[in-house]
Specification:
11 helices; 40% helix; 2 domains; elongated; BirA Bifunctional Protein, domain 2; 3-stranded antiparallel beta sheet
């Protein structure tokens, strides 16, 4: 039996020397170390040997198996190195070819538009003021003249974080940037309660509404709030400011219009439209076939809101607006669906 093991080892090693590729190497492994190989048959016959022969033959068989496995590993390395050398010779590398293009990071289109809006407002004398995204019901609604049970406070329009846990003042994700008006007015009024300084600020940020997602509305969106408070401010000042902004954003020939509207925190209130550049005023799904697209709501700050902010409405007046940067991007680049902005499709984002 020992002579047979020596012969098996010699024949296997001789056959291994002629192996030149991976497929032949695998075939050799099956033939020499597989279940039906001569070596495995020796292991199967160990039970037929005497007690004196069994340990001797078993040790010799294990030695042969270890030797063949080691030889297989060495040959595998040699075959792999030969295959690599062959591929380098046959597939020569042209070092003069240009390298792979490096993809540079960039700002999200909504961020780009938000910065453009704030840059224009800064040129017009507005200071950036930021406020928090998570608000109390009092700041988001009550102090903005939304009394409890007001129709505009429908639960389906808001994302409540702690609904029912704080009585009449639960926590929610803000539905607009208007709570920033109260924060800002109170901060400015605290500087001089008897004669608060004038305010001219822009409040950017993300808003959240539990609404139906369509081609022109999302459940989350950026908004830029504008607020100006002082003595002798009129609705004419508001119109002049917003028309000037539209011309700076869309060009001097851009047509605008104001429509009467209603917001609890402004009186009188209006909505401002810009002609739809997506369809050229002919009508499409973005403008609801009207030829116009609303870009903001505005109005004179309601006396109750002024008073809640620490400004005497008998002495001070002010105007405010809330505009959507994504809507403006849709006009500038003729984008037909607002859902593209949050779809994270690289093909869309790389265009900006």
């Amino acid at each position: 039996m020992l002579d047979k093991l020596s012969e098996i080892e010699k024949n296997a090693l001789d056959a291994l020397q002629s192996v030149q590729d991976a497929s032949s190497l695998d075939a050799w492994r099956v033939a020499q170390l597989g279940r039906s190989s001569p070596l495995m048959k020796v292991f199967a016959e160990l039970g037929k040997l005497s007690k004196e022969e069994k340990p001797v033959v078993g040790a010799a068989a294990n030695r042969v198996k270890v030797a063949l496995e080691a030889a297989l590993e060495e040959r595998a390395k040699a075959v792999k190195s030969a295959a690599l050398a062959k591929s380098l010779e046959e597939e020569a590398l042209d070092v003069t070819l240009p390298g792979r293009t490096i993809h540079h990071g960039r700002l999200h289109p909504s961020t780009q538009q938000l910065r453009r809006v704030l840059a224009i407002l800064a040129e017009m004398g507005f200071q950036v003021y930021t406020s928090r995204e998570v608000e109390t019901d009092e700041m988001n609604f009550q102090l903005l003249n939304f009394p409890p049970h007001h129709p505009a406070r429908d639960m389906q329009d808001s994302f409540y974080v702690e609904a029912g846990q704080r009585g009449d003042n639960p926590i929610l994700l803000r539905t607009h940037t208007s709570p920033g008006q109260i924060h800002a007015m109170r901060q400015f009024a605290a500087m001089n309660p008897k004669d608060p300084p004038p305010i001219r600020i822009a409040l950017p940020g993300m808003c959240f509404r539990y609404e139906q997602i369509t081609a022109r509305s999302e459940i989350q969106f950026n908004q830029v709030e504008g607020l100006a408070v002082g003595k002798g401010i009129t609705f004419s000042d508001l119109k002049g400011t917003l028309i000037d902004f539209a011309h700076r954003m869309f060009g001097q020939n851009a047509r605008t219009r104001f429509r009467a509207s209603y917001f609890p925190f402004t009186e009188p209130s209006a909505e401002m439209d810009v002609e739809c550049f997506v369809c050229g005023g002919k009508g499409c799904q973005v403008c609801k076939n009207s030829g116009w697209l609303e870009i903001l709501g505005c109005g004179m700050v309601h006396p109750v809101v002024l008073q809640n902010g620490g400004y005497d409405p008998k002495i001070y007046s002010g105007y405010a607006w809330g505009m959507g940067p994504e809507r403006q991007l849709m006009l500038r680049y003729r984008i037909e669906d607002i859902r593209y902005f949050w779809g994270n499709d690289v093909r869309f984002l790389e265009q900006f």
